[in-house]
Design goal:
It contains 12 helices and 11 strands. It is an alpha/beta fold. The protein has an 8-stranded mixed beta sheet with strand order 2-1-3-4-6-5-11-7, with helices on both faces. It has a 3-stranded antiparallel beta sheet with strand order 8-9-10. A hairpin with a 5-residue loop joins strand 8 and strand 9. The longest helix has 19 residues. The termini are far apart.
Length: about 350
């Protein structure tokens, strides 16, 4: 099989996102990651299918030269689940927004995670409803002024990481739209993960919520306000690479290397494969000003998948059953001869 390239996953459709929209960068990262995934797993391009719901991010299937399914609002996860269970050989990717996945589609979202369906969910989080012109979403900041909250929201937002891990998710990663290289790493890790993977992409909506992630994405502060977690590496961050995280078994703490007897060896080593979901939840929950926001793969553990469970059950029942065709079914149980 010939090696695939970025161009193999780029469709001939004109990309109609607004200039400067963060979705452009996420699309480019996915198109660059899938050739690496194909090489690693031996997948032909025909094995990929991209599913979406409704929203700006849900245009993504049109821009991917793969099989695709543009579903209805909030139902992308249900469609993706059905596709994976019906044809387990397909590599199923789902594109959804913070409103699409966490509001009208919230039930489907958490149950796919709970069931550990082997699909890859890309959650575009711009903290706003962009396609319908600026209503607040489940991730909008408390007090956000929007078209549907002119005096400010009065509800606390979801933290998608907390939601995923609260549903006992087996894979959660987070990144900024502009982190092209990191996003490629995340998408590849998600594809290699056997189970439900959720990749939260913090994206910018230049029209209705411009700068919503600027407090961590601005180059002047990003090094001090974010931390990139990589498997087996110490949790060190900061513009001078002199800050780190330590864990006392129940709480995370930010320390400065070289102060109060703290050395680099005291800094926590990231283990996304650990069974310690409490630590992963603490990492996913971190926020400023006291903590950096965690980027990268936060959790990646192995658990049985729903789709494999369905296949194994069908195979087991089939072996034991005396019914092997429709004729067997019609002649089973109580029968009557009508004259």
């Amino acid at each position: 099989m010939s090696t695939l390239t970025f161009k193999d996953f780029k469709s001939d459709q004109e990309v109609r996102w607004c200039p400067g929209c963060g979705d452009h960068a996420v699309l480019a990262a996915l198109q660059r990651a899938l050739p690496e995934v194909s090489d690693a797993l031996g997948y032909a391009k025909e094995r990929y299918v991209v599913v979406s719901g409704i929203g700006c991010s849900s245009r993504l299937p049109y821009y991917m030269d793969t099989y695709g399914f543009h579903s209805i609002h909030g139902r992308a996860t249900a469609i993706a689940t059905g596709i994976k269970v019906a044809n387990p050989d397909l590599a199923v990717w789902q594109a959804c927004g913070d409103g699409d996945a966490l509001a009208i589609g919230g039930n489907h979202f958490i149950h796919a995670i709970r069931r550990n369906v082997d699909i890859n969910i890309i959650l575009f989080n711009n903290r706003i409803y962009g396609l319908t012109k600026g209503q607040y979403s489940p991730t909008s900041r408390f007090g956000a002024i929007t078209k549907t909250s002119p005096y400010g929201t009065v509800e606390q937002p979801f933290n998608p990481g907390s939601l995923v891990l609260g549903a006992k998710g087996t894979f959660f990663a987070r990144s900024l739209d502009v982190e092209l290289k990191l996003n490629q790493e995340i998408f590849k890790a998600a594809a290699l993960h056997d189970g439900c993977s959720v990749c939260e992409m913090l994206t910018n909506c230049v029209i209705f919520n411009d700068g919503t992630h600027k407090d961590i994405s601005d180059p002047s502060v990003k090094a001090d306000r974010t931390i990139v977690l990589r498997q087996g590496e110490r949790m060190i961050f900061g513009s001078a690479r002199d800050k780190g995280l330590v864990y006392d078994g129940s709480h995370l703490k930010v320390v400065t290397i070289g102060q109060n007897g703290v050395s680099e060896e005291d800094i926590l080593i990231h283990d996304a494969h650990s069974d310690n979901i409490a630590l992963h939840l603490a990492l996913a929950d971190m926020k400023g000003p006291d903590f950096p926001v965690a980027l990268g793969v936060i959790r990646d553990v192995s658990e049985p998948t729903y789709d494999k469970g369905v296949r194994d059950q069908l195979e087991s029942v089939s072996k034991k059953s005396s019914i092997h065709c429709v004729d067997d079914l019609l002649r089973s149980g109580s029968t009557w001869e009508v004259k």
